[in-house]
Amino acid sequence: TDVARLIASIGLPRLSGYLLPEPWMNLISISSARFHPQDTALDPRDLLQEAFSVHNGLVAFPPEEGKALVRSLFFRGSLNRNTAMKELRRLQDQLPPPFPDWPSNYMVPHFQTLGPTGLKNNLTMVSNHTGIKTALIRLLGEFDQLYQKRRHVASYTSQGMHETEFMEASDAIRDLIQAYQQIEDQQVDRDEDEDE
Prior knowledge:
Blueprint: H1 2-10, H2 12-19, E1 29-32, H3 44-51, E2 68-77, H4 81-94, E3 107-112, E4 121-129, H5 132-148, H6 153-157, H7 163-195
Parallel strand pairs: 2-3
Antiparallel strand pairs: 1-4, 2-4
Helix pairs in contact: 5-7
């Protein structure tokens, strides 16, 4: 896919250095400006507005619930780089940094002159956001309901999976939810300390 080729062109080690502040925080979310007709080129402001829209993410969670730890923005195709950087700085000034001591460059732009197949330009945003725990909580709830009813367990165990692996996977997701929650709680604790 275009996103896979894009990530490969940047280099996964370099990208993971931006997106994974901690090795265990390895869930990223992807959003993209909607695809428009081939003869339409969007300006950077429109691209950013669409990429930041809750409706254009591949994982459904409200971005206002939680903190964006880091975002990599991939501008592709024909657009004015100076205008894009100006709009990105304007947006960055409007959004508070995730944490008081977080680096100010937590939104990392990448530019590629070659546009996605059949389009003049596009923007794809890859981010590490604590709000993804909302989707994980929803997924875990659905898993718990299915597992309590023993739905589909026989299908997996007949293929060689052990039943303990279900609980290990569930525990791993609970740990990840707790880790993202701790990051948000650290911010609340810092805010309360500053108020005193």
